[in-house]
Amino acid sequence: MKMRNPPVNSLSLEFLTELLISLEKLESDKAFHAIILTSDCPGIFSAGLDLMEMCGRDPTHYAEYWKAVQELWLRFYLSHLVVISAINGVNAAGGCLLALSCDYRVLADNPKYAMGLNETLLGIIAPFWFKDTLVNTVGHRTAERALQLGLLFPPAEALQVGMVDKVVPEDQVLSAARSELAQWLAIPGHARQLTKSLMRKPTADRLLKERDADIQNFVRFISRDAIQKALRVYLEKLKQKKT
Ligand SMILES: CC/C=C\C/C=C\C/C=C\CC/C=C/CC(=O)SCCNC(=O)CCNC(=O)[C@H](O)C(C)(C)COP(=O)(O)OP(=O)(O)OC[C@H]1O[C@@H](n2cnc3c(N)ncnc32)[C@H](O)[C@@H]1OP(=O)(O)O
After folding, report:
1. What are the residue ranges spanned by the domains of the chain?
2. Which terminus of the chain faces fewer neighbouring Cβ atoms within 10 Å, N or C?
3. What's the ipTM?
4. 94 CA to middle of ligand 1, Å?
5. Is 0.95 topped by the overall pTM?
6. CB-facing half-sphere around the CA of 208: CA atoms within 13 A
7. Measured between alpha carbons, how far is 3 from 9 in angstroms, rounded to an integer?
């Protein structure tokens, strides 16, 4: 699955919906057993959630958007397919969440390709299920520091803290993901799937039990004047970077 939403693969409502539909199609076709998730945007895996979906819109839109974000995470996190990410670019916040929801992560060895949950740098907060997904991957202490400081880890550090499983030269990221896949596909499918569910269901259930409350929290939080202002300032900084 090659993500293509130029220029930065931001996860707009439309793009989230496309990803969901693609995932559902693959999951319902018995011929498919695995996905390699990668990017078609040079140097960028994903810039995360689309800030334009969270800025200057109305509460109904925020609620619709957040429901789609939740849905994408739940579907990827619990997918019965083997999902491996071949991370071939910088990978921020919501994009990093997507990679953390995969079964295995290969990152291209380029110092520009940092990844992490950098929400605090924008003046926002990583929701509890983003946090849980990170804790499940790197452990509590590393996650606590990474989340508070909004750290984006370059490849060597991402590997060292366990945010990714392998770092390889850029031109080998897809072939390394394919080689890894062979090991996962050699395991009897039902045993692997049940084990995945055993490991992940408690985390997913936390959100499933509080889905509506989580949407309401998001809408309340994102609608605050101070948060809207912080997002506008951040977007402005991104634009000014060019001049
Ligand atoms: C008490 C609390 C209770 C409850 C709390 C409940 C909920 C919590 C609340 C909120 C949680 C919300 C969670 C959000 C998670 C996210 O994913 S936020 C997004 C974080 N992403 C980033 O910080 C990345 C930002 N982008 C960049 O750093 C760079 O763009 C990047 C390094 C990816 C690429 O750099 P470069 O190649 O130089 O490209 P440009 O920077 O020039 O960008 C090109 C154009 O794209 C626009 N853009 C970039 N990122 C985004 C984005 N995420 N969304 C929308 N648009 C983006 C950028 O502005 C440029 O636009 P232009 O061409 O100037 O029009």
Report:
1. 2-242
2. C
3. 0.97
4. 9
5. yes
6. 10
7. 7
